[in-house]
Amino acid sequence: MTPQHDVTPATDWWRDAVIYQVYPRSFADGNGDGMGDLAGIRSRLPYLRDLGVDAVWLSPFYASPQADAGYDVADYRAIDPMFGTLPDAEAVIRDAHGLGLRIIVDLVPNHCSDQHAWFRRALAEGPGSTLRERFHFRKGRGENGERPPNDWESLFGGPAWTRVPDGEWYLHLFAPEQPDFNWDHPAVRDEFRSVLRFWLDLGVDGFRVDVAHGLVKAPGLPDMGHGEQLRLLGNQVLPFFDQDGVHDIYRSWRTVLDEYAGDRIAVAEAWTPTVERTARYLRPDELHQAFNFHYLNTDWDAAALREAIDTSLDAMRPVSAPTTWVLSNHDVVRHTTRLGGGLDRARAATLLMLALPGSAYLYQGEELGLPEVTDLPDEVRQDPSFFRDAGQEGLRDGCRVPLPWSGDAAPYGFGAGGSWLPQPADWAALTVEAQTGDPDSTLELYRTALSLRRTHPALGAGASVEWLDAPAGVVAFRRPGGLVCTVNTTAAPVRLAAPGRVLLSSRRVEPFDGDFALPGDTTVWFEE
């Protein structure tokens, strides 16, 4: 039996933390129904401890009709039966702490499910209901109110408004089953402070805030004036995203977080036009971290990477927040596929990311080198935007295929009852079992890199890098503490003088007359 102990207290632990995202549906199935669950997560926590991460971020497991894989929450204080029970969630938190892991849970404050008690009452009570004031209900345009109140578009395609039988319309920036809350209403603000305390009292160490940029809408809900609004996401200020009023909300949340011992944190998913706008969410009295989408979207190009790193570090420095680095998550194509260079490039990108100062996020399965599954048949897909026109690409299921743990055939140890999305027939060599103990495997590369990151004085927290002269296509920098990271982003080998002994490399490198021939798509950590 694993001895139980509390997570070791540490001030600002999140400044250099490696945080591992678990997508509960696809991590591990504990009851054999083909769907991942809390029991499965609990059984695999020792794997995450041995991998070497500091914290685990759990995507939503709340009570939900699952119109958007749990991001449509019907009850923020209850567990959906498909994942287990509230005692199961408490057991995950308790066991994680006993293994030295922190737990961060997803919080979805921009919208709820259309099955949420408030929204159901709002519909039942009709126009004039005080419950409708907690959402964005409006009369339509046109002679008979037959047109939406404004021209906003849903990120999942189509208008951002749905009309109800009594003639009014309600706003949903995502699926129609996800009505947006009206954050100008004090009851909404009070409710979410209560939800924060509910989970903090159960021992969670923080929250990942979904659509953190979306809570406040511009007064009067003004028209955009043109279509294809999704193309503008992250490029300019929109009347429904990144409004200045969100910051009052997060200042009130910070007060709640600071009431609790143990350095509890909040992490913003904030799509903003610039990293400087993102930094506003991280002022000392607001949130602690924000996802670095600017870096995630950077091409595998030396000049572009250097610019993204500099811009990211420069933006965070004035607010004394750590920069975060991320390559994959549950909403984007896995970086083994997305970066275009296969596993070699993905491994090189990972070692680059883990050498940068700040906090890093890993998405489940990337440590196995899993590629995007691009050939899922239409009949198994569940991404809601796949079924709507003109929205997101609708292909997020490809990064959500359940993990392979062991064995030669599907479901590869995921669970006794198959898997909710089909796993490829050629994944036997990618299982945890197959890669464990193989010094050339991607899993062992991650384990070694994360171990070094914890122990080497030049890795982890910080706010800057020292750029070094390097040939075209090569990124090279020094970290205080005696480590040099060298990255060849080209396909051809590059001959370099070695600045010290090789500490770790994403591919084998061989000495050549005192120098090194650095292969294409390779990162090397040198110890000076």
Describe this protein's structure:
- With 528 residues, the protein is α/β, with parallel strands linked by helices.
- The protein is 24% helix and 16% strand.
- It is built from 13 helices and 21 strands.
- The strands form 5 sheets. Strands 11-10-9-5-2-1-13-12 form an 8-stranded parallel β-sheet. A 5-stranded antiparallel β-sheet has the order 14-15-16-21-18.
- Helix 11 packs parallel to helix 13 (442-455).
- The longest helix has 16 residues, at 186-201.
- The radius of gyration is 23 Å and the shape is globular.
- The two termini are 42 Å apart.
Task: Produce the secondary structure layout.
Blueprint: E1 18-22, H1 24-27, H2 38-51, E2 55-58, E3 62-63, E4 75-79, H3 86-98, E5 102-107, H4 117-125, E6 137-138, E7 161-163, E8 169-171, H5 186-201, E9 206-209, H6 246-258, E10 265-268, H7 275-279, E11 289-290, H8 293-296, H9 302-316, E12 324-326, H10 335-338, H11 342-355, E13 359-363, H12 432-435, H13 442-455, E14 466-467, E15 474-479, E16 483-488, E17 494-497, E18 501-505, E19 510-512, E20 515-518, E21 522-527
Parallel strand pairs: 1-2, 1-13, 2-5, 5-9, 9-10, 10-11, 12-13
Antiparallel strand pairs: 3-4, 6-8, 7-8, 14-15, 15-16, 16-21, 17-20, 18-21, 19-20
Rg over CA atoms = 23 Å
SS class: alpha/beta
Give the overall silhouette.
globular
What percentage of the residues does DSSP assign to strands (E)?
15-25%
Q: Helical element count? A: 13
How would you classify the quaternary structure?
Answer: single chain
Distance between the termini: 42 Å
Report the count of strand segments.
21
Overall mean confidence score, pLDDT: 93
Q: Give the low-pLDDT segments.
A: 1-6
For the biggest sheet, the summary is: 8 strands, parallel
Percent helix range: 10-25%
Spatially, the strands of the biggest sheet line up as 11-10-9-5-2-1-13-12
